[in-house]
Amino acid sequence: MRRDHWQRKIAELDPETDFEEISRIVSYYEFPWDVQQALSFALFRTYAVPSIGRLLHDTGEFTTDTQKRHDDTALVLESVLVEGMETQKGRSAVRRMNQMHGSYDISNDDMRYVLATFVVIPVRWIRDYGWRKGTDTERIAAVRYYQRLGALMGIKDIPADFAGFEELLDTYEDEHFAYDDKSRAVADATLKLLVSFYPRIFAKGTNAFSRALMDDHLLRAFDYRKPSRAVVWLSRASLRTRGRIVRLLPPRRKPRHAIDLKRIKSYPGGYLIERLGTFPETMKDESSVA
Asked: What is the pTM of this model?
């Protein structure tokens, strides 16, 4: 297989109709590690919006069982992408998301912002740290994928293109990022989990590395101390160096799914989509019957 095998495959597809297949190639063959990291940081950013951070804190799930919440989020999103939104299993995963979100008072504006992070942050991450630059076809596919997913989730006024998603994300963060004790608690718990994925001896370094990848606006929202210029430069340079090394590797032949990662620890024996996620009191009777 040539190094550009998957790029040539993507070039044969139409992002207007084949957006799911293109998204699968990007996520599981071309940039699996990058997309996983980017989505983790995308979700992390949402905590800096107090209405989101407070809600996640008040569920009690994101500070008391952070590992499971991390795993559930990754697996639900992966189920939608792997199975396809129009399949029975894909729709079951979307239904599970809608059940969770429908149990809380979440504004359409907050839902639109979270959707925008899923579109914009991976594109920006790949632009900055990927082994190659993303293409227009891949960006259009990402937009169409999340437009369709957003529609199935009942989100209104979804942007029409990537520029619209970027404007939504940047404007929403400018207007809503602010410090909140509950948001900080959720961020601390999540950062602690991310650090735990690496050997304990590297804990302090991993924490500083993570903060070095955060922009000043996000750091201020959580009242996190910014690492030194040297640490910021080294952290970001190491990711760019990784990209250059990956460029020399052969193309991936097998998909790299979240369920195959060691950091997904909650379901060693497998899982049912219908049992993933949170079950508020009003849903517990229903889940026990499912």
From this structure: 0.90
